[in-house]
Amino acid sequence: MSDFLKRYSKIRGADHVQSLQLEGQIAAQIKTKRQTLKMSQQKLADLAGVPKSTIGRIEAGLTSPKVETLLKISKALETPFIIDGTLDGGNNNLYVQT
To answer: Taking every annotated instance into account, which residue ranges of this chain make up the domain HTH cro/C1-type (predicted)?
Structure first.
């Protein structure tokens, strides 16, 4: 953990920092998968049935998506959304670490 995150943990709490890191990991996985598929944010938004601004805000880490939105995105990316408490073992699944 970086010095900044250690200091921030003392202010906001370790759970809050861990939550932010998790959200960042999910956002990065979504963006990476979208780019691998050569898909624009608009195309992903259309396929998922959400506004383009939602995709942009998720990828930028400005919003915490609801599980329903994550499921729509995973379907649009044709990528399983798995919550099992493990890290991605090199496959293309979206994992949530708990």
So the answer is: 30-87
